[in-house]
Every structure is written in C-alpha cells, then in structure tokens.
Amino acid sequence: MIAGLFDAHSEISQETQAVFLRELPPKFGPVSIYRAPGLLMVHGGAAFDKISAKERQPHISRSGNAIAWDGRLDNTDALLGRVGPRLEGDPTDAAIALLMYEAGREDALGELVGDWSAAIWEATSRRLLLASDYAGVRPLYYCRRSSHLLAWSSSQRHLVEWSGDDRLDDQYVAEQLTRGASGCRTPYSNIRAVEPAHARTFCARHSGKRVFWRLRPDNTIRLRSDGEYEECYRALFEEAVRVRLRASGPVHAELSGGLDSSSVVCMANRLIASGRTECSRLLTISYHDPASQDEQYYRAVENACGQSGMHLETSDYLFVDASCPGDSHPLFWAPRHMEIARRLDAAGSRVLLTGQLGDLVTGNWFDDSDQVADFLRPGSLCRTFSEAMAWSGYLHIPIYSILWRAFQLKFSLASTENLCGSMNSHRQSWDDSLQPWVRDLAASAERAQADSAVWKRAPGGKRKLFRAISAVLEDRVLQTPEPFQHLFYTHPFSHRPLVEFMLAAPSSVICGVGEPRRLMRRASRDLIPPVVLNRRSKAAFNLVFAMALRPLAAEILRDPHHFRLAKLGYVKGPAIRHRLQCFMTGLECNQPQLRTILLLEFWLRHREVRGTCRPNSNASAALAGTGNFGPWPSGELNH
C-alpha cells in the first residue's frame, strides 16, 4: 500500500505530514518513508513472498528518482534482459519498474505486466507520476486539499479522513443509479481513482495524463489447428495462475463450482503438487446457498484436488446489510468480504484468487451469432451461409435476421445504440425513479464515453467481447474491495497476455455453435473434473438478493418520508415507495437497479451516523439548472 503528499511550490509542514501519517489505516503498517523538498512518500504493508521481503521501499535509484510500488510484477524475467546490467542489489519488482520507467518514461509502463499501482518521483524535474495497471486491480486515489497540495493513497478512507472533504459527487451518484458503476469517480467530489493503464503527472507548471496501454482491435492471431490454439491457451492460463502463487504462506482461492473458479483451483493445485511454485498450500472458500446447485460441483473439485474447503453460508453474510453497507464507499457483499479478510489474516494468507472475468475471456455466450460477420468476405460466402444456418437452427431464429445483423456489423451500418446491445433499452423499459437531471447527467457521461470507445473499431464478430472487456476495465470492476486492500486479491483470467490472446483469436475458435467456452473446455479436458467441465447451469442468487433486501425495504416503508436520496433530490420519493411495495408483494420493480438504490441509501445513513459524507451543493445547483457539476478548478487537471 502506498500514500504520499506533493507540494510543487513550497515545503510541506511537519504538522501536515504528521496528521497525514496519523490517519493511515492500521493495515498500512509497517510503514517506511521517503522525504524530499515538497514531497512525502510512504510505503506500507507486510511482505507476501521472498521477493517483496527483500524490497526496501520507497526504492531510490542511482539517478536519485524514487518509487513507491504496490503490487506484483509478472514478467520480471523478460524485463531483466533489458535492465539487468543497471540493477544494483536484488532484482525486486520496484527496482525493475523504476529502471524501466527511467529508460522509457510513460511508454515503458505498458510493458509492466501484473497487478500494480505506483508513485514515481523524478528528482531533477520535481515531477510526480501516479499510475495503475491496465485492469486497475490495485487501487490508487488522489485528491487536492488546496490549489497546490496533492495527496494520494491506496486507501480512499485515508484521503477522506485526512482531507475532511466528504461532499458527495453528483456524477458518481448518477452513474451508480443508472448503470451500477462509476468508472474512476468516487462518492466524494474531491477524490478520484487513477484510471487503469493511465499515468497522471503533476509538477509546478502543469498536470496531465497519458495512456500507456490500449486494447488492440486490429490484432489477430491465426494458428494452423485447434490443437495449437488449445496449447497456447493452456500455456497462458498456467502462467496466469503460476505468477499469482508467489506467496510465502498459504494461498486462498474462491471456489463456486463454476468453470472459472474450478479451473483456477485445479491449475493451482497441480502447480503446487508439482513443486513449480513458491506456495506450498492451497485453501478454498465456497459460498453455500441451499437454493443453489453449486454444492455438488465445488465438492467434486474439492474431492479431485484433495481439498477440504471453507464453506460460508450466504444467509450469514448478506448481500447488503444495513449495519455494514461499506465503509468509504457503498459495497455489496461487505459482510462477507470482512469475514474472508479476517479468516485470511488468521491463517497468515496474503493472496486470494478469484475466477472473475472468466465468463467474458473464455466466450461464455449462448448467442454468439455475431461471429458470422467475420466470414463475410470474398470467397467465403458458402462458409458464411453454413455458419448462419447452424446458428439459426441452434437459436431457433430466422437465418435472414442473422445474416442482416452480420452485414450491419461487417460494414458498420448498425447504429451506436444497436452496437451497444439492448442494455440501454432494457434500462429504460422499467421505472428507475430518478429525477430527470440525474438521468441527463448520467447520459451525458455515457455519450462522451461512447464517442471515444475503442470497441467500435473491433471486427464485427468481436465487437461484443471488446465492448464488454472495455466496460470492465474502464469501470474498474476488478478493483480490490476495501476490506481486501492489504491482501493480494487477484484474478488469473485478467492476466494480460491471456486476455490479449483471447481477444485476437477467432471468435469461432473460442465459442462454437452450441459450444460456449469451446476453446476453454477442450483445453481443460485433463484439468477439471468431467462433471464440472460439462456443466451448463449457472448459479443464480435471486433468493439471496431478496432475502437481504426485504428487511431494508420494510424499514424504509415504515418511514418513507425520511428517504435520503429523495431528500437530496436524486430520486422521486413516491415512485420509490411504489416500487418497494411491488417488491414486497413479488411484482416487477426493476430489482437490479433497486438493489443499488437501497445500498446507496443505507450507506448514506451509515455515513451520517459516523458524522461524515455531507451532501454536495451541486445537487441543489443541478435542480436549479446551473449544470455546475465539476469538482476541479478549471485547468487544474487535464481530464
């Protein structure tokens, strides 16, 4: 975990530094500090493997530059060939990352593969750089306390308590209530997250940002046979799991019984058994829901791997809880996250593996008929009709609709709305209870994001996948939840070489007609138990969601006139009451969005009890039609 202060114009007072250090969360320790004129750089947290145990951070290079590194570097062998002769001492992640930066500045950051965030100080130019990996897994936030004093921290709570600025950000609320995500915005108008694959720079003259990695829609891979694709997938997936098993203590892994988590657990178990990793013990965590069929599948994986996993009852750790709706920001599953963090701490474990992103990366599509567009080229008309006919028979829809869709995608004739899929139309088909200005505010941000969308340049058959991956990255869906920030919460399916390979491989190789996850299943035949490998069901937590929401809905209905989101002008009170009554009687109420409303409402109440998170004056300004939503002074940051 990292944190710091930067003042480009003057010294930072001892009192300011002392207060900043005093507000560090307990999980930050032990702490080491680097000071320079106008700079305080802090690194904290326990080592998780032999390499991190050797690190002395912040690390200072021969040139006098400094880096505070939070994360794991996965391609050290490749990078050592470039910076090895200039290394002094042990080849730690921080030392390698700083030497790479000194050699190629921001562009070189794109070559750092792993889960990481970093603060880099250039001593000669007095320039500070904050950067985060391509998926934004390791959180890094920044804020200004004055026009010249900048603070950054891995902990959002740390910045809130130190700055004393807890005004709500209207844009964050609007985006949460419309799409359930808010990108790099936080609930606070003066705190932002560093964007994935971005470097933000700060110095006396100006501030700005630069992208150091992008999705490559034009990148394609063509191998000679299915066997070669399977071999590449197996090698990359093995690497994705192996690099995440860097741990001196035990490693924990979530195990739901689905293909994604099961493949991670089975691969990790195989690597540990063969002695090809530093980790010597794997422990699994499963979530038991009596209404779900998951148990038979995760038990099969436990038996195959010789595991006796930890099982948590979903009824004991609710999806959303009025007494625990998140700390510095709203968080679903907060009670469960806190319990897992407690158990990992007790076991001396610092790493938690998940199966997140597996659905997207491995092509878990029931309908992937868009791939017909990739066959629309001279000399392939017979193949095009053959593929369209196969999808038509499988989906039970007319072949002309598949061909017309493929033609639109191939020649970019589909409108932006059609290319975006039906998400927006579904969202608008149900009552969202939002005030018009909130909906307009979210729509303006969505339009701005769509205008620069990289996924639009992807081949027609890949556009859906590129759009989904883009949304996950831009919204920081893979970011470490607050209770896990002192741990290495990591996702093998987000391993960048694996993601890049799957994005470049032909769609028909990854997902076939009636064969979701075609490549993954074929490549994992000798890895995953057959009962799991052939699984076609998907766990649903509708009853778990309803069980958690009912007491919250009942509490609001007992006193509907004190609904905070309505008082602040974000939602319509009567519409919310009607939807809650529908929910309690089992009628349609747009429950997915209602979950977010209830989470945000009880998080606001929780923060009021703690005496923080004041409403932003921007809410009233928006109602008055001023449009004054920006938290940053004009020209101060280059968004």
Task: Report what the structure shows.
There is one protein chain. By secondary structure, the protein is an alpha+beta fold. The chain has four domains: 210 residues, 4-Layer Sandwich (Glutamine Phosphoribosylpyrophosphate, subunit 1, domain 1), CATH 3.60.20.10; 183 residues, 3-Layer(aba) Sandwich (Rossmann fold); 88 residues, no CATH class; 71 residues, no CATH class. The chain is built from 26 helices and 17 strands. The strands form three sheets. A six-stranded antiparallel sheet has the order 2-3-1-9-8-10, covered by helices on one side. Strands 4-5-6-7-11-12 form a six-stranded antiparallel sheet, covered by helices on one side. It has a five-stranded parallel sheet with strand order 15-14-13-16-17, sandwiched between helices.
